[in-house]
Amino acid sequence: MFDEIVAEIAADPLVVGIVLTGSHARGTATAHSDIDLCVVTTGERPRKRTRHVDEFACTPARLADTSDIWGRYAFRGARILLDHGGVQELVDKQATPTAEEARRWSREGLDGYANFLYRAAKSRRDGHVTAAALDEAESVSWLLLTIFALHGRVRPYNKYLRWELETFPLGEPWADLPERALREPAALFPHVERLARERGHGDVLDEWGDDLQLMRQPPGPA
To answer: What residues contact residue 107 under an 8 Å CB cut-off, 6+ apart?
Structure first.
């Protein structure tokens, strides 16, 4: 079925590229996984979604647009099935941030992570345990954005976080990142602060002034 689908798409003279994404591209497919195909075309092509296949079309110009940060991880580990020119380059640009993008995401993510840790610390201090837990939970998204941006990468979808770390290890202390981010996101702050300062983003944290000490305090028991 897969070969037939790809052959049918490739027969369209307006199609200039076919990109396999998702779990089948990354080798993590299960019996429930559909086949995700990005069809690069210069014409119109309706989206097709069935139980087995999710085929969506995009123009070369749309594939070249890297402004959708969340959508970019779809192309991490993607496989090029057809390339009539330039598709591989566009996919690579989607999957890998530029140095300036990584810098900007690092600073935005770091400030967002610090913001929620500060709120959580204040809530814990004032006895608002539930509010503190909610703020820590909200910090996780910013935490993951920050860690991967500091390493020059696009943040993975949660489904592929383990695959990313096993395929492209970050080293210590990030090997058990999924579990620690879920269980104790505030406890990772010292590691994030150290890495952020090494990468030249200490000024983002220093702007928090004395409140930075609140973030550095290990969270107490719930």
So the answer is: 201, 204
pLDDT at 119: 96
Domain identity same for 158 and 188: yes
Give residue 47's pLDDT: 87
In the chain the beta strands, taken as DSSP E runs, fall at 15-21, 35-41, 48-49, 53-58, 79-83
Position 179 scores a pLDDT of 95
Distance CA 85, CA 17 (A): 8
Q: Please, which residues have CB within 8 angstroms of residue 16's CB and are 6 or more apart in sequence?
A: 40, 41, 42, 60, 82, 83, 84, 85, 86, 87
Other beta carbons within 10 angstroms of residue 97's beta carbon come to 22
Domain range enclosing 106? 99-216
Q: Are 42 and 10 in contact (CB under 8 A)?
A: no
Q: What is the pLDDT of residue 220?
A: 64
Q: Which residue has the tokens 């647009």?
A: 65
Q: Are residues 84 and 124 in the same domain?
A: no
User: 48 - beta bridge partners?
Assistant: 55
Residue 221 belongs to some domain of the structure: no
Number of domains making up the chain = 2
* Same domain, yes or no: 136 and 189: yes
Residues 6+ apart with CB under 8 A from 150: 102, 106, 192, 195, 196, 199, 201
* Phi, psi of 132, rounded to the nearest 5 degrees: -65, -45
Extract the residue ranges of the chain whose pLDDT is less than 50.
222
